[in-house]
Amino acid sequence: MSDKIYSVAILGCGSRGADTYGKRVFNRPNEFKITDLCEINPIRLKETQERFNIGDDHAFLDENEFFKTKRADVMFICTQDKDHVRQCLKALELGYDVLLEKPITGSKEECYKLLDMQEKTGRKVFVCHVLRYSPAFLKSKEILDSGKLGRLVAIDAVEQVAYWHQAHSFVRGNWRNSKECVPMILAKCCHDLDYLQYFAGSRCETVSSVGDLTFFNEENAPEGSAKMCIDCKYQDTCVYSAKALYYENWKKQENTWITSVMMRCKERTEENILKELKTNPYGRCVFRCDNDVVDHQFTQMAFQNGVKANLLMTAFTQRGGRIITFYCTYGQLILNEEEGLIKVKKFGSPTENIEISSLVDQGTGHGGGDDGLVDKLHSMLDGDFTKGTSLKESLESHLMGIASEESRINHGKLVYVHQ
Ligand SMILES: NC(=O)c1ccc[n+]([C@@H]2O[C@H](COP(=O)([O-])OP(=O)(O)OC[C@H]3O[C@@H](n4cnc5c(N)ncnc54)[C@H](O)[C@@H]3O)[C@@H](O)[C@H]2O)c1
C-alpha cells in the first residue's frame, strides 16, 4: 500500500455515505481525508460537517454546484439508486475515481454506458459489493477453492429479508415502489447475485424467476384497522405495527437503526418518536401503503460452466441473514449467517464447524464486509485490483438481476442474460 493520503468527497451523507463509509475513512487519517460533502438535506449536511470538520466552503446542498469542478481524488456516491449512474458519469468525466453504492442501475443500457465511460476516462469505479470483503464469504471461498470438497455442482441460497426489514424498507420505505426504485431482486439481492457468480466461477447463462407481492396489500388488512398504526386498535398486537417496530424497540434499545432512519435528524426521545409516528410515512399500516414490490421471489440460474444455483428471497423470516448451501462432489459447505456458522461436511468425515465470529475482528456491518471494503479501498485506489471487484464483474450481477426481473414479469420465462 502506498503512503498517499487520498482526499474524499462524499455525495449523499445518509446511512451509507456518512454513517458507514464516512465514519470508517474518517478514522483512518493516514489513508484518507474527507474534504467535501454534498447533501440535499440541510440538517443532515450540517450534522455531517460537524462530525467530519468540514467548513461551509466545502459543503454543498446542490449537486450542480458540487459537480462544477473536481474537488478530491475519489468520490463516494451514496445517494438513492436512481441517481447513481447519472452522478457516476459526471464524476468520471471530471476525473474522479468512484466508490459507488449498489445497486448501480436497473437498466442494461446504463450498465454498458457506465462501462464505456470508465474505459474512456481511464478512471476506476468500485461498486460496494461488501459481501466480497466479508470474512465468512472469503473463508468459504478459500475452502471451496482448496478442492477439499471436490468440484462445485450446485448452490442453494436463501436471503432471509426478515419480516421487520421488509416492512421497514420494502413496504413503508425507500424501496417499496417500482416507479421509484430498482426491482427488489436488485435492491436486496444484488449482493447475492454477485457472490453466486463469484462462487460459481463463471458467467451466468440463463435465468428463470417467479415471485409476487402476496401479503402486504389492502385485502390482508385486519378488519377495522386504521391507516396509521398509532390510531389503530391493533397497535399493540400486530407484529408489523409501527409502534412496535420504531417505538417499543427503541425503548428496549433493540434494532435502533430503523428508528434512526425514520427519525432522520430529529431528536430521538420517546415523546418525539410517538409524535412522529402520527404523520411519518414509516407510521403507515403495512397493509395500506403505496408499495408494489414483491414479498418473495425464487430465481434459478444456470452458469456457463455447468454450475446451477437457486436463490430464494423472502420477507417471511423471523431474523435476517443468508443461508447458503454449496453442493460439491466430495462434500457440502453451509454458510449460515443466522446461526453464525460455516459447516464443512466432507463426505465420510465428521462435520467441521467454524464460528463466523472467530473470523471477524472488529467488523460489524455486513458481517465485517463494510470494514473489509474500506480495508482494501486504499490498495485498490493504488491500482491493486487483486483486492476487489472490477466494474465489469459488478455489472454481471446486475445483468443477472435485470434478466431475473424480466423473467418474473413474464411468469418465469427462461431469459438469456447476455442477449
Ligand atoms: N452496500 C450495501 O450493502 C448497501 C446497504 C444499504 C443501502 N445501500 C445503498 O446505498 C444507497 C444509499 O442508501 P442509504 O441507506 O444510505 O440511504 P439514505 O437515505 O440514508 O442516504 C441517502 C442520502 O442521500 C441524500 N441525497 C439524495 N439525493 C441527493 C442529491 N441529489 N445530492 C446530494 N444528496 C442527496 C439524502 O438526503 C440522504 O441523506 C442506496 O442506493 C442503497 O440502495 C447499499
Summarize the structure.
Helix content is 35%, strand content 20%. It has 419 residues and is α/β, with parallel strands linked by helices.
How is this structure best described in words?
Strand 4, helix 4 and strand 5 form a beta-alpha-beta unit. 35% of the residues lie in helices and 20% in strands. The protein is an alpha/beta fold. It has three domains: 122 residues, Rossmann fold (3-Layer(aba) Sandwich); 189 residues, Dihydrodipicolinate Reductase, domain 2 (2-Layer Sandwich), CATH 3.30.360; 66 residues, no CATH class. The longest helix has 19 residues. Helix 4 packs parallel to helix 5, helix 5 packs antiparallel against helix 14 and helix 9 packs across helix 14. The chain starts with 5 loop residues before the first strand and ends with a strand. The chain is globular, with a radius of gyration of 22 Å.
